[in-house]
Write a structure and sequence with these properties.
The protein is α+β, with helices and mostly antiparallel strands. It has five helices and eight strands, in the order ββααβββαβαββα. The chain has one domain: Gcn5-related N-acetyltransferase (GNAT) (Aminopeptidase), CATH 3.40.630. GO terms for molecular function: acyltransferase activity, transferring groups other than amino-acyl groups.
Length: 205
């Protein structure tokens, strides 16, 4: 059970591959879509800082702190990034975070597929007992997406971070525990199966 391994994880709607410097140009284009990097309650790399962000994440992996992936949509485009954070092998738990997905890939099932791949790896390959998610209080879309996975809200950490504009960030904490994983897996799998069925029916009309 190597918590720092970065396996390639494949699904029908998206796949995860180890983050690499050569992904910088594609990821810069992805984060530039609709000026995604400018959303005030996120900390996304600007297009011109994507190479530096990749170097930072790879350094974090080398230091044993994070596990970084590039997200690829089914059409082969690199559409975002995601990581394992706060990795605690001794306590068999970790956090899924620092995730962003290009607007063109949002609402397409990519996020559901990615989270299913990550959660399956965490609970089934790494034998985790808990997986955590954290997000900005004002990031309502992220909070809804995390809840839709089947995660339960643990609480709110008030004034947890000093934000880049000097404001304070309240952090909303969610988690899925090992006893909940079978039901969460079934739910996410069914969501993807339903989406695939609808997409197939639409393409044959």
């Amino acid at each position: 059970m190597d918590f720092l391994a970065i396996p390639t994880l494949r699904g029908d709607l998206a796949s995860l591959e180890p983050l690499a410097p050569e992904h910088a140009e594609e990821l810069a284009e992805a984060v530039a879509e609709e000026d995604l990097y400018k959303i005030w309650y996120t900390r996304l790399p600007t297009p011109d800082r994507m190479s530096a962000e990749i170097e930072k994440r790879l350094a974090g992996h080398a230091a044993g702190q994070i596990v970084p992936w590039t997200i690829r949509a089914a059409d082969g485009r690199a559409v975002g990034m995601t990581t394992f954070l706060n990795i605690r092998p001794d306590h068999r738990r970790l956090e899924i975070g620092s995730t962003w997905i290009a607007p063109s890939a949002q609402g397409t099932g990519v996020n559901t597929q990615v989270k299913l791949l990550q959660l399956a790896h965490a609970f089934e390959a790494l034998d985790c007992i808990a997986v955590e998610f954290r997000t900005h209080w004002h990031n309502h879309r992220s909070r809804a997406a995390i809840a839709a996975l089947g995660a339960k809200q643990d609480g709110v950490l008030r004034n947890h971070d000093l934000w880049r504009d000097g404001s304070m960030r309240d952090v909303v904490v969610f988690s899925i525990i090992d006893s909940e994983w079978p039901t969460v897996r079934l739910s996410l799998t069914e969501k993807l199966r339903t989406r695939n069925r609808v997409s197939t029916a639409s393409s044959t009309r």
